Amino acid sequence: MPQPNLPFSSSALNTEILQKTEPVSIPAHTEILRPGQYISSIPLVTKGLLKVITKTEEKELLLYYIEPQQSCIMSYLAYSQNSPSQIFAYSEEPSEVMLLPVSELPKWSVDYPELNRWFMSLFTQRYTDLLDTIHHILFNTLDVRVYDYLKEKCRLLQTNPIKISHRQIAEELGTAREVVSRVIKKLEYTEKLENTKTGIKIV
Q1: How far apart are CA 113 and CA 149, in angstroms?
Q2: 88 partner at 20 to 30 Å CA-CA among 20, 42, 45, 61?
Q3: Is CATH 3.30.43.10 correct for 141-202?
Q4: What's the pTM?
Q5: Which is it for the CA torsion 90, 92, 94, 99, positive or negative?
Q6: For the HTH crp-type domain, which residue ranges apply (predicted)?
Q7: Model confidence at 133, in pLDDT bands (50, 70, 90)?
Q8: Torsion of CA 80, 52, 9, 19, to 10 degrees
Q9: In DSSP terms, which residues pair with 25 in a beta bridge?
Q10: By the 8 A CB rule, do 66 and 50 touch?
C-alpha cells in the first residue's frame, strides 16, 4: 500500500506520523465530529474532501472545506484550549485521513517547528476564508453567492456538472431551498448554469 502524501518537508516528522498513526478510510457523507465532543485526534486529510459547518436548530452554514494535505484548525483550537468542539465535520466524498493523536502533539510541536508553522498557515487561511464568507453575505447578492459556491464545489470535487440538490445548496449557504431554486432558474436564464441529466453544469 503506498504511503500517504504528507505536507511536511521533515522526513523525521513524516516518519513519526506514519509510525504513530494509521490511515483511516471514511465513506462519503459520514459525520466525523459534532459539538460537545472533546478532541482526541486531529484529522490530516490525505485523500478526498471534508467539510466543516456550524448549525442552529433551523439553519446550517458552511465554514470551510478541508482538502488533501490540510487539517481542521477548529479541532486544533479546541484541543489547544482543552475545550469541546463547536463545529460539525463530515466527509463530502470517500476520504482518507491520518488521525494525529493529540497526546503526541506537545512533543512534536517542540521537536518539529514546521508543524507549528503548518497549523499557523492553516489558521491564516481559515481566517481569510471567514472574511470572504462575511464579505459574500454582506455585499454579494444571493445569485453571486450560489454561482461562486457551485464553481468552488466543482473545483474541489473535480467535476462539472456536479450532482447536488437545491436543498444541500440552501443548507450550506444558510438560506431556504425555495430561494435557491429561484436563483438557479435565474442563473439558467442568464446562461451561467445549465441543468443536465447528470447535475448542474457551470457554463
Answers
A1: 35
A2: 20
A3: no
A4: 0.83
A5: negative
A6: 140-203
A7: confident
A8: 70
A9: 96
A10: yes
71 with 119: CB under 8 angstroms?
A: yes
**pLDDT for residue 3 is more than 80:** no
How confident is the model over 25-31, as a mean pLDDT? 95
Amino acid at 69: Q
- The mean pLDDT value for 120-144 works out to 87
Reported residue count of the chain is 203
Give the bridge partners for 99, in sequence order.
Answer: 43
The residue extents of the domains of the chain are: 11-137, 141-202
Burial category of 72 from C-beta neighbours within 10 Å (exposed 0-12, middle 13-18, buried 19 and up): buried
- The pLDDT value recorded for residue 32 is 95
Q: Are 135 and 111 contacting, i.e. CB atoms less than 8 angstroms apart?
A: no
CATH number for the domain running over 11-137: 2.60.120.10
